[in-house]
Amino acid sequence: xxxxxxxxxxxxxxxxxxxxxxxxxxxxxxxxxxxxxxxxxxxxxxxxxxxxxxxxxxxxxxxxxxxxxxxxxxxxxxxxxxxxxxxxxxxxxxxxxxxxxxxxxxxxxxxxxxxxxxxxxxxxxxxxxx
Length: 130
Prior knowledge:
Elements: E1 11-16, E2 22-24, E3 28-37, E4 43-50, H1 58-72, E5 78-82, H2 88-96, E6 100-104, H3 106-124
Parallel strand pairs: 1-5, 5-6
Antiparallel strand pairs: 1-3, 2-3, 3-4
Helix pairs in contact: 1-2
């Protein structure tokens, strides 16, 4: 079971903000990947990843972690990623930067990421309820 109490910058969570692809005209659908500080639930970084690629590229994964690092001026000890999410490049890049990667069922992360997802849905729409 996941610890529910964290110090700021102790752990980050990487997850998909949208619950349905974000459709664009010419470029097709995208997923919005986010990195959040587990203690503050502050979104540190986001990136749009084409759904046909499935996983963020190595370069995009590096950029996401660099953007998150810039907010916190450091890296966390642990990066949590939902089991259900394809994030192999992000996991490899985090491990390369000496961050422990822990895969957990998304259900255990909902207490942290649920509000961000709802806010995203309210602002940008989408989802299975349309």
